[in-house]
Task: inverse folding
């Protein structure tokens, strides 16, 4: 499929040939320069073919029925689970399919909320489930660089239970203020939920160090890995967390599928989130018992085609090689940082180095609102994200209303970095700030 | 460049030199609106006088932060509605809303919209329509509140 060249870069042209959308033009025949993979990645033909083959040959409701198609669909779905779990170094039994990472995180927040509700009603809970009961005096710890998906569910949980939300602040360089960690982590901390790679700053956080400290006070650790699983080799056992959430569509997979990995004993101790068909063990009019994980967390007919598409995406990423992808993105990010900081009036929001940072590269152009930056880039065929990137507190922290963000993936090349750089020059010319 | 149909000279002029900007006293109502997709914000005040068909928008004053489209749109809006009757101001608001939601198909009424016809090109960029509407939606909200409060004062 591809190989690493001596520059550390992938053979982008052969990769691009697998992505039909990357050969289209936009805005009056401009070549598409897609730098918005942080929002969603494009899909290779292999993923599209896998979904089509499933629908054309094997489609049936998974985990229901005993006819041949039902068997084939169930096998395909469970094989997908096994391959995706193996991609992050986990057994299939520890991988829950969700709709997206937002749902994965909510599933965990609701485990707390639902366990707490039941305890208040006097429902007898298994000993291991009691750690999910929280209330006034208990604390939830996040960071100031969380995506709204890893902030708002915890705000809601705290509102419902009376627990207190605390957060690690940020340094001017876009790093976590780890000095505050020891004072923020106490025996009151019940859960620590932290992003691995910030979607807006690009910062890669020392999750292992945070998890170690959190475990020392007995807190549960959830990691939002939406921007790391697609971009770097990741083994959940080495990460040190109890739970890891990510989405499929940012890693060449379809929309509508997300993942939640959980250590077996942690998943086993969590009450269900969505309830209904598939997630039960026995059902009587008086009450029901629930299936073991991962089925306990997969109510309703599952998104089989999406899981199969995501497994094909994982196959694709593995064939290219995650270390090679990480090295490729690192080289592009290095080139982009160097090019952007050399432009007068351009400021990077986040680490202006390539140490412990991924390819999500936010910047502001002095005197030009990010929307107006993005519009000029769009007119040149360059797709970037503008706005607060669902991380509004980060924008406030750095005193900007929004940023322009470029993100690089395996199908981007140095020509895309050059296009971005020339585009930013054009932005400055158009708005008269050069 | 096609983008010049979006960034018309009139829009760029209003962006660089906005009219009516700054929060002024007196006022009946102050509202604060945000565009949740991009974080743009406007604080807008209106002062109403008279009653019935003669109710007049005496002043519209605002502070805002945002992109060129949202800033220019608020400036053009100030020119169009300050000193006009509430009915005329709301008619302009409705016409502007109509044009913005037309995907560029509607022929704007220049009698009603004046300089704001320049925003017709914005309607072809769905992601920017909310930018253009930020000030206008704040105006509609503020005028409705102010008119109600003002009528109660008269009672």
Result:
């Amino acid at each position: 499929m591809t190989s690493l060249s001596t520059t550390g870069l992938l053979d982008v042209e052969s990769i691009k040939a697998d992505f039909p959308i990357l050969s289209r033009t936009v805005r009056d025949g401009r070549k598409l320069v897609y730098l918005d993979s942080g929002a969603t990645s494009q899909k290779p033909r292999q993923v599209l073919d896998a979904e089509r083959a499933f629908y054309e040959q094997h489609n049936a409701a998974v985990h229901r029925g005993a006819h041949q198609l039902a068997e084939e669909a169930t096998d395909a779905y469970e094989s997908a689970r096994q391959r995706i779990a193996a991609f992050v170094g986990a057994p299939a039994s520890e991988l829950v399919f969700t709709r997206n990472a937002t749902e994965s995180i909510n599933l965990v927040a609701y485990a707390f909320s639902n366990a707490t509700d039941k305890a208040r009603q006097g429902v007898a809970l298994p000993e291991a489930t009691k750690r999910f009961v929280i209330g006034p005096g208990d604390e939830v710890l996040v960071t100031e660089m969380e995506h709204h998906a890893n902030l708002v569910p915890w705000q809601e949980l705290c509102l419902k239970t009376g627990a207190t939300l605390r957060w690690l602040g940020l340094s001017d360089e876009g790093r976590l203020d780890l000095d505050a960690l020891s004072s923020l982590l106490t025996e009151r901390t019940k859960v620590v939920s932290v992003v691995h790679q910030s979607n807006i700053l690009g910062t890669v956080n020392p999750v292992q160090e945070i998890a170690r400290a959190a475990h020392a006070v007995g807190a549960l650790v959830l990691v939002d890995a939406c921007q790391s699983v697609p971009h770097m080799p990741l083994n959940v056992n080495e990460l040190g967390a109890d739970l890891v959430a990510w989405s499929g569509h940012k890693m060449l997979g379809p929309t509508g599928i997300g993942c939640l990995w959980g250590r077996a004993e942690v998943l086993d101790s969590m009450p269900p989130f969505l309830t209904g068909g598939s997630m039960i063990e026995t059902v009587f009019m008086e009450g029901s018992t629930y299936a073991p994980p991962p089925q306990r967390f997969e109510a309703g007919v599952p998104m089989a085609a999406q899981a199969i598409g995501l497994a094909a995406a994982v196959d694709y990423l593995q064939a290219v090689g995650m270390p090679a992808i990480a090295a490729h993105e690192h080289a592009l990010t290095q080139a982009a940082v160097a090019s952007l900081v050399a432009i007068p009036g351009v400021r990077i929001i986040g680490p202006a180095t390539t140490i412990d940072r991924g390819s999500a590269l936010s910047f502001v152009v002095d005197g030009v609102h990010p929307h107006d930056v993005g519009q000029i880039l769009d007119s040149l065929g360059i797709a970037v994200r503008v706005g607060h990137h669902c991380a509004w507190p980060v924008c406030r922290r750095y005193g900007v209303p929004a940023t322009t963000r470029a993100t690089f993936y395996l199908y981007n090349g140095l020509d895309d970095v050059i296009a971005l750089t020339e585009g930013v020059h054009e932005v400055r010319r158009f708005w008269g700030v050069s | 460049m096609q983008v010049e149909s979006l960034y018309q000279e009139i829009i760029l002029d209003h962006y660089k030199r906005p009219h009516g900007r700054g929060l002024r006293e007196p006022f009946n109502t102050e509202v604060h609106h945000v565009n949740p997709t991009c974080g743009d914000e406007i604080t807008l005040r209106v002062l109403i006088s008279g009653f019935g068909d003669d109710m007049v928008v005496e002043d519209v004053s605002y502070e805002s932060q945002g992109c060129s489209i949202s800033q220019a749109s608020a400036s053009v809006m100030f020119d169009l509605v300050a000193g006009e009757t509430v009915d005329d101001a709301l008619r302009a608001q409705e016409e502007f809303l109509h044009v913005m939601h037309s995907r560029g198909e509607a022929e704007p009424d220049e009698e009603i919209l004046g300089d704001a016809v320049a925003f017709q090109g914005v309607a072809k960029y769905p992601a920017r329509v909310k930018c253009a509407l930020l000030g206008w939606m704040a105006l509609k909200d503020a005028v409705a509140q102010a008119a109600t409060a003002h009528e109660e004062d008269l009672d």
User: Anything to note?
Assistant: Chain A touches chain B at residues 27-28, 369-372, 375-376, 378-379, 386-388, 392, 395, 401-402, 430 (CB under 8 Å).
